[in-house]
TrEMBL record:
One of its GO terms (biological process) is protein O-linked glycosylation. It is a single-pass type II membrane protein. It comes from Ibidorhyncha struthersii. Keywords: Glycosyltransferase, Golgi apparatus, Membrane, Transferase, Transmembrane, Transmembrane helix. It is found in: Golgi apparatus membrane. This is A4GCT acetylglucosaminyltransferase. Belongs to the glycosyltransferase 32 family. The gene is A4gnt. GO terms for cellular component: Golgi membrane.
Length: 392
């Protein structure tokens, strides 16, 4: 802990606290305590002397406060303990500052809703638990810089997610996101009101721009994380020879993502669902790779891009999406999976997790997003029951 130590000689003070330095050419850091003394000229003896001395003291205290705050921030980054300080300061960070920390997990909400449904909350919470050392960012189109939402928000899911130390919720400002990418020209020309699939198309574009600019992993808001993904540059096979864009990861400024953005604009057709999404990823992958069928649970690789087996994220294929909301005699173990895609587009929010139903989805919620399960499902049903009794 930093300490401010005042020295007896007039006009001087010292700051004592931890400091880190590199040990020669080694990559490790060594920390100790430094003592910095700042000398100030002795004030002249005049009638205003005492007032000037008090003012100087106040200035020194203010400078000391800012210095200590900066040191704490730097130490937290160097020590890998950034998120232990986040609850007090994360609401003052900008999207760029968080994204520049690197290796973010990015989620997008391109509707205007401000209350994330339980599946969205579960997806974000499960990622926050699996990737505790990485920023988890939820961009919401419905938020603006003037929107006042905090831990005491009336939106239960928003409050739940905001309380997690490595979860950040920011407004999705597309014009800013598309700056310095091929997508900006397209965005300035397109008319959202005339686009049949605008919610999906704008999401397809935003995820490409964010991953190209900052790197990391993009995930759909119906993906439940169950173990860390070991790959840095990867696409997720939905089936043999066909790529999803519901989850993918790349380092910043990767050529494949830039090429995808250029093709997005060149081949744009908003009337065809998925043309700028999974079909875009598939056709771009085919230009550089000779795609073959998967056999067993092996992954494919091409030009340093891993094309991950369907078992990694889609062990239950989309025609069987309803099985997540059924009771299984014996639940699958998903030993070959990193995350599970629950196909909410196919579901259209018709089926939901119900406490006590013993469905596969309920078991996944209990295991990987227990706070969402307890706060948004169990407690909601208790509240609904109480309200029904009061009505009677």
């Amino acid at each position: 802990m930093l300490q401010t130590v005042w020295v007896s000689s007039p006009g001087s003070w010292a700051l004592r606290g931890p400091a880190c330095h590199r040990d020669g050419k080694q990559t490790s850091w060594k920390c100790g305590f430094v003592r910095t003394i700042i000398q100030h000229p002795r004030p002249r003896h005049d009638t205003k002397g005492p007032r000037k001395a008090r003012m100087l003291t106040k200035i020194q205290i203010c400078l000391c406060f800012f210095f200590v705050s900066g040191i704490l921030y730097e130490i937290s980054l160097l020590s890998g303990c950034f998120f232990s300080y986040v609850p007090m300061s994360k609401h003052f960070l900008t999207p760029e500052q968080v994204l520049n920390l690197g290796k973010s997990i990015i989620f997008l909400e391109t509707t205007d809703r401000l209350e994330p449904p339980p599946l969205v909350s579960c997806s974000v919470e499960s990622a926050a638990r699996i990737y505790q050392d990485r920023p988890i960012i939820l961009f919401m189109k419905g938020l603006t810089n003037d929107t006042v939402l905090d831990l005491n928000s009336s939106y239960a899911a928003f409050s739940l997610l905001s309380s997690m130390k490595n979860v950040f919720i920011f407004p999705l400002q597309m014009e800013t996101v598309f700056q310095e990418t091929p997508l900006l020209q397209w965005y300035n020309q397109v008319v959202p009101e005339q686009e049949k699939n605008w919610v999906h198309v704008s999401s397809d574009a935003s995820r490409l721009a964010l991953i190209w600019k900052y790197g990391g992993i993009y995930m759909d808001t119906d993906v439940i994380s169950i173990r860390p993904i070991p790959e840095e540059s990867f696409l997720a096979a939905q089936k043999s020879r066909f790529s999803s864009n519901g989850i993918f990861g790349f380092p910043a400024h990767h050529k494949f993502i830039w090429d995808c953005m250029e093709n997005f604009v060149l081949k744009y057709n908003g009337k065809i669902w998925g043309n700028q999404g999974p079909f875009l990823m598939t056709r771009m992958l085919k230009t550089i790779c000779n795609l073959t069928d998967f056999k067993g649970t092996e992954d494919h690789s091409c030009q340093n891009i891993s094309f991950l087996n369907p078992q990694r994220f889609y062990p239950i294929p989309y025609p069987a999406w309803g099985r997540y909301y059924e009771v299984w005699d014996k639940s699958p173990n998903f030993n070959h999976s990193y995350a599970l895609h629950l196909w909410n587009f196919m579901n259209h929010n018709r089926k939901v997790v119900v406490a006590g139903s013993n469905t596969l989805a309920e078991k996944l919620y209990k295991a990987y997003c227990p706070t969402t399960y307890e706060d948004l499902i169990q407690n909601a049903e208790v509240r609904d029951f109480r309200h029904s009794e009061e009505d009677v």
